[in-house]
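Suppose you are handed a protein chain with no further information: no name, no annotation, nothing but its sequence. What can you learn? This example shows the usual starting point.
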Amino acid sequence: MKVTACTRVGNMGWEAYAFVVGAKVPDASELTLKGTRRGEAFTGKVTAVTSVDGDYRIEVEPFSYMGDFTLSGGGISFSKADVGDMHIDWVDKFEAIRERGVNYRLYSPEAHGPRPLVLFLHGGGECGDDNLLQMVGTIGAAKIAEDYPDVYVMAPQAPGGHIDFSKGAPVMPARFADSDQKGERGWHRKYLAAVCDIIREMIDDGKVDPNRVYVTGMSMGGAGTLRMLSVGSGLFAAAAPICPSMTPETFGILCGLTETKLWISCAYVDHTIYRHKYIVDGILALRDAGNPDARLTIYSPEELEAYGLATDPNMSLQAKFSANHSCWILTYNNEYGIMDWLMSQTK
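A reasonable first move is to predict its three-dimensional structure. Written in structure tokens, the prediction is:
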């Protein structure tokens, strides 16, 4: 039986919303959807079944596509392993490329002439070498391309094994002094330099406007955004780091961005308690140094709850702080106009 999955990247990451099946499908009321999400069982809802050109389209309430599932009833049954074809809204518009030792996906606009470019740096949960997880693990590159289809969107994948968040947020170093990144994993300087070289080649080829290159990323990617402003000094018109990991290195970089257009956003607190102290100190240092373009937005509990984050009043503090970390959902939905601000900056 031929099964095609229709998926997209929503606020909470990769999700399925429909399946197209090459076999007779019963009424929606006869179908049952069960699966696992972050190690926990769930029951989904089938909302409609329609006939389309000889096949049958099964509409479901969107559910996480990161785990396993089984859809069965009325004589049919299939699981994730049976999916032979898959469509990912907007992600399918990105070309998968490996160049200069960098795995990346690139969305190219249809517009002619040099266009702006947004570099998106994913978080720690999407490291690897499949050249896909950085696109689907969280909201990010696909959302940017959807909202700004007239610009290039580049989404490299950082090397190293991904961090497993299925059991909650990883344990962070208890001391700020012990938190620097080590080795060639994640957004290390050598890898970021290769990314810069690829962007500069696109500028030289007349594809990218040299005055409108931007960088954004979350968590480890927020730290990578700050590090990129050091590695690629002069390349970027503006940056929007989200809940950047604060280490002695990234804090030092932040405090030195006295002429950089920068807008940091974060939750009021998340699983790295000391993160916010150094973000605030860094932005204040930049303002004191005379940088009028050093901006900071700290999302309140109410603003996070409006996006479904940490809404359970009975959550433990650890679980609440872990949920708050996904504050990039607000930024990439353009809260406070952060993304519009980023896209309007020029060198």
